[in-house]
Amino acid sequence: MLVIVFLAQNCAIGMNFGIYGTIVTALEAEYATTRTLAASGLAAMTLVMGLSSPLVGRLTRRVSLRAMMIAGALICATGYALLALAPSIGAVLAIYALVIGPGVCLLGVLPSSTLVANWFHGGKGRALGFVNMPLFVSLFPILTAFVLAGYGLEGVFVMALGVSLALVPVLLAVVDTPARAGCEAYGANAEAGPQADAQAPGAGPLLEGRALHGNRSFQLIWFGIGAAIGALLFGWLADRIGGRRAVVVQALCWTVPWALLLVLGANLPLLLVAAGLAGMMSGAIVGLCGVLVGSWLGAQNFATAMGQVYFYKVPFLFGAAPLAGFLFEETGSYRLPVLLHIASFALVAALFGAFRPRPLSD
């Protein structure tokens, strides 16, 4: 079950982020549009994901997770087919928002994390860390670059269509709960320990919009490798010291790559180190958030709570990039946005370090 969820999560999130950063320049050229519009597809997708997450969270308690995930894969496949035929950049953005966004929401984080919560009572941090390793964020920039060079944007979207359709037979093996398979959840008889308290949702790389080429491609690949390592590392850490403490460690560590960006300049090896460290912290988010939600609010409230979490993220997901762009235009550099990131992570560490949730009543 863990491998199936891993594939679903990577097809939903990893593939989209891995592809899109590589095709921004191609979109700009194909549709003779601005860089801003060409780079807005993922923002449109994540906006709709955030707005629809509360509804999807409620649906997980009423609809089969298997049916929901299969529907998500088929909706995504439909979206990629439409993208291959899109006549304008406006159509591309509309498809990402109205088709790909809902499809990813039905296929990705919420049902995937709910399945892990259903099947794992012990070792949940490691399980969520494995599921949220963004392997496809590293693989698909490379695949997309080759396909884009030979077959253009249409070929890239047909590739994504094929991957989504190939996932459907795999999803037929999904079983919502261990009881339906006649078995118990992993760790069902284990005592609750510090591992019961960690997870967090992850964001993909913020790319500059060039095709996979030169230094940026290496930075993206190192980001993806770091994210895969971070998902496992912080999942293990959450099981060892608890999710709340793991979030504090993660938030403090996250200040390091951002601080490096202030002093590195154009030194490629050090930029790769910063990209890997940033990926390591980003890869841990979804896993840590899920563990925290499960331990603080209980398994019975998990899906609904995760949906609310994603809804509350909307202003940050949709507003961060425009805010950074505005600050860059006003100040002439990204120094202020970077400092805001560092201050935000320090604040997160302080808040989680001080917060003590009330224990759930039996």
UniProtKB/TrEMBL annotation:
One of its GO terms (molecular function) is monocarboxylic acid transmembrane transporter activity. Keywords: Membrane, Transmembrane, Transmembrane helix. Residues 138-362 form the Major facilitator superfamily (MFS) profile domain. Gene3D superfamilies: MFS general substrate transporter like domains. SUPFAM superfamilies: MFS general substrate transporter. The keyword Ribonucleoprotein does not apply. The chain crosses the membrane at residues 37-56, 68-89, 95-120, 127-149, 155-175, 220-238, 270-297, 309-328, 334-355. The keyword Membrane applies. It comes from the Bacteria. PROSITE patterns: MFS. Pfam families: MFS_1. This is Major facilitator superfamily (MFS) profile domain-containing protein. It comes from Croceicoccus mobilis.
